[in-house]
From TrEMBL, chains A, B:
UniProt similarity note: In the C-terminal section; belongs to the class-I pyridoxal-phosphate-dependent aminotransferase family.
Gene3D superfamilies given in the database record: Aspartate Aminotransferase, domain 1, Type I PLP-dependent aspartate aminotransferase-like (Major domain), Winged helix-like DNA-binding domain superfamily/Winged helix DNA-binding domain
Domain HTH gntR-type: 36-104
Alphabetized SUPFAM superfamilies for the sequence: PLP-dependent transferases, Winged helix' DNA-binding domain
Lineage, highest ranks first: Bacteria, Pseudomonadati, Pseudomonadota, Betaproteobacteria, Neisseriales
Molecular functions (GO terms): DNA binding; DNA-binding transcription factor activity; pyridoxal phosphate binding; transaminase activity
Top-rank taxon: Bacteria
Name this polypeptide is given: Putative 8-amino-7-oxononanoate synthase
Species of provenance: Chitinimonas arctica
């Protein structure tokens, strides 16, 4: 289905008038009820289009004024109709954006219950197989990044040309291990928006967010150390553990509220945990969001036990509401939090510029940068600094957030529509990914092997655990603006899951997401 | 001293005629000896200018034809004069470049004799101090990279603008973990020049040479493993060992011939060595060059013992002679060699594009790239690929090699002229760095602390050993085209060394480069 627009909405509304007229009538209204009949009729009309699928979850409704003008009714009639639809849970107001068809609610997957013992990680082979399988395939729901056309390509290109013109030897200089001061200053300034109080010297530039994670981890761990993580957690992180000889301690995590602080408290008490890596804002893969109060408790808890917190805030800017959620770093008073973020997901994946605010681990992080990639291309840094300075960033991010919100609504709608009974999924308040629990019996890796042949890819659940758990889970990313092809792929994926469920009913396997018992 | 040019040479030659005429004459020649007298006189004249310092090591002489025309003598007279000077060891022919004042010979530092037991590495702190000390200071002899003006900035800038224009979303795409095929193909093609037979799939693109080393090391080692290296070796490599929990086994190394294969043979026989990292071509810091025969034996030896060889060939293109030395990889028939190189030093330090040809470790290296920096900026790769394709690279590298040869000759000359008696240094056949052994009693770290205050930096010897050895050694890099300031800095550095030697004579310390005994 193509993106909904006002004109076609009115066309549809008009074409459906006759049908609505043929619907069973209410009791004939009194004259004083005329207005109430009008708004109720309008509400019914729109409700009918929603139930018929003409209007889908996440579709934007025309504005109150537009509808007033086109239908020749009063503003209050339209307002009442929308209020009625809101009360019936069919539409919702979004701040500064207008009214949208409301998403159907799904029960989220249950809180995870991983093993209480640390595990050596062996996702390497699985990840390799996954990469081979999805390499060069159509994107589908695979990549945790927005589509290329969503980024400010023209602006960046212009800024980069200017940067090269202004500094003719920009490509011939290393640009320093810590990164260009002009960019570090912009990042420090930007952090003020979430309550960060830093100066340029507190910031270390990296080659994207993944290098930032690398450096942070190496700064605070030794091979053999135990590191606490959410469960499920980002597979790249687990893979890092494997390559660094670290053990993962998977902590029970609520797919909406984030990591269990009670469980984390128990885990760090015995002194065996060397560090903790979390994504308090829109975790990958679940999209969970910790409350400010939980973040504060988290920072205090880890500080008390001298366990460094590596906070991956790479999706923090993709919030749906009015305010950016604060990262845990905002509550850090001792420098115990290594804050990791990146402009890769925000401004330009191909520029590969991320950063760390490493708190008290600054010198360790800088020296690790020195030996990991030595420096980050200066032309990228200067271009990005100028983009941030220009104010173009704020405008761009508002657009990105609108896109994400829309795409997530479409995904939610499609999951409700096309996926087998018993499927549960998260409804994150930000980001552009969703963690889906299929009914026990569906093997997401096998599902991928089938679906990828039809150009439908995604990340299967077992990638997100050190112990090959979450076999009937999958992560769906919606980085592409929604289109008919996306809708068709999602529908087909649901069908394939249903087929596997039907075929596998003879030999179902356990729901491994809940196999682990919390001691 | 400014760079010598033909015109001022002739001015000097002319101005010295009278002086030459007043020199004691030879016995009066017969008429048939007229030509031989002429060429001998010319040779003497030039020799006199060399011994007086008017002509310095590395200065280019006028061409045969120029000298013939200006002096009104026959071509054979000039040829004979030059031959005479060559025989006397005063000048040397360089292929396709002409005749140059020959460098004074220094005895190289002795072969190293490090400990035979592996050591955990602790250079971290030393490196950090070094970085703090030299940060933001004038370059001096510190950085192992050519100066920004030596690189093809204008061409690259033009190619980058074109790349961005041709691919408008280049900054918004990851570009793939393995790297752009168009660049990998160019690299494979380029490797044919040294006998490499590869295709694009054999190549992995990295964020510079240092990431390439990282990935190669992680692909073949586990924390706790013992890795054999040259002694002295590149401090970044030792720092990598420290961060990865690897132990360094320093192998005796000849500063001209490279690593001792006899010692390496002994080391790998007991099966305790997990991998070996060497720089057979122009090693950092000594500049040593292994012979083809030694490289062949090396590859065979390590293959027989199933010890992977990581070959760092980052300086291989900076050869002084007519032919590029082949890397050990050219003799690898089993895929046991992980070949590491980079266009960082060759084309553009700020582009950060390196590569590995990882042989049989391809999948391990690719997955490590995936989790280290995910991908290398596509715009850099495309720009570089087009530069290589254009043929601009060959022209550029000829110029770079000429610059390096000149700078190294100047350095050699300055060391002979300004440094204390008993100083020994290497005379590499390529690269732009030199390993200097000062007389016992000079502490290079203390020397740096003093010299850096005067804008003279270099890398002190202890950085190049896992055991804080080489205290009276230093590495000098000459990446800047030589100028009066460089000459003055080198002179001053020699003075400071002499001062320390005079002051420290009361409490000399041992020559730690030779403290270790080979068992």
């Amino acid at each position: 289905m193509v993106h909904f627009n006002t004109n076609c909405f009115f066309a549809m509304v008009r074409s459906r008038r006759k049908i609505t007229a043929r619907l069973p009538c209410r009791s004939k209204p009194m004259k004083s009820d005329r207005r109430s009949t009008l708004y109720a009729a309008l509400a019914d009309e729109i409700a009918g289009m929603i139930s018929a699928g003409t209007l889908r979850s996440g579709d934007k409704l025309p504005s109150l004024r537009e509808l007033r003008d086109r239908r020749g009714v009063s503003l209050s009639t339209v307002t009442e109709a929308f209020r009625m639809l809101e009360d019936r849970g069919l539409i919702e107001a979004r701040p500064q954006s207008g009214f949208f068809v409301r998403q159907k609610l799904s029960e989220p997957p249950p809180r995870s219950r991983p093993s209480t013992t640390p595990a050596a990680v062996t996702v390497n082979r699985r990840l390799w197989d996954y990469l081979q399988l999805t390499r060069g395939r159509q994107q589908g729901f695979c990549y945790a990044v927005m589509a290329p056309q969503c980024f400010p390509n023209v602006q960046l290109q212009k800024l980069m040309n200017e940067a090269l013109r202004d500094s003719p030897t920009l490509l011939s200089k290393y640009g320093g291990t810590r990164g260009l001061e002009v960019l570090r200053r912009q990042i420090a300034r930007h952090a003020m928006e979430w309550g960060g109080r830093f100066n340029a010297d507190d910031v270390q530039i990296t080659a994207g967010g993944i290098e930032a994670l690398n450096l942070a981890l190496r700064a605070v761990t030794q091979p053999g150390d135990v590191v606490a993580v959410e469960s499920p957690t980002y597979f790249g992180l687990l893979q890092l553990f494997e390559s660094m000889g670290l053990k993962a301690l998977e902590i029970p995590t609520d797919p909406e509220q984030g990591v269990s602080l009670t469980a984390l408290d128990l885990a760090v008490r015995d002194g065996a945990v060397a560090a903790c890596v979390l994504m308090p804002n829109f975790s990958n893969p679940t999209g969970s969001l910790m409350s400010d109060e939980a973040k504060q408790r988290l920072v205090k808890l880890l500080d008390e036990h001298s366990v460094p917190l590596i906070e991956d805030d790479i999706y923090g800017e993709f919030y749906q509401g009015r305010e950016r959620p604060r990262p845990a770093k905002a509550f850090d008073e001792t420098g115990n939090v290594l804050y990791v973020a990146s402009y890769t997901k925000l401004v330009a994946p191909g520029m590969r510029v991320g950063h760390i605010i490493p708190g008290r681990y600054r010198s360790q992080v800088e020296i690790l940068k020195y030996i990991n990639t030595f420096s980050t291309p200066a032309v990228m840094q200067l271009t990005l600094a100028r983009f941030l300075e220009s104010g173009g960033h704020d405008h761009h991010m508002r657009r990105m957030r609108r896109l994400c919100t829309d795409q997530m609504a479409r995904l939610n709608d499609g999951l409700a529509r096309y996926f087998p009974e018993g499927t549960r999924w998260t409804r994150p308040k930000g980001g552009y990914m969703c963690w889906v629990k299929l009914p026990a019996g569906v093997d997401s890796t096998r599902l991928l092997e089938t679906s990828v042949e039809e150009g439908i890819s995604f990340a299967p659940g077992p990638l997100f655990s050190a112990r090959n758990a979450y076999r009937n889970y999958l992560r769906l990313c919606v980085g592409e603006p929604w289109c008919e092809a996306t809708e068709a792929k999602l529908k087909r994926l649901g069908e394939l899951a249903r087929q596997q469920l039907d075929n596998g009913a003879k030999a179902p396997f356990a729901d491994t997401g809940n196999l682990f018992e919390l001691g």
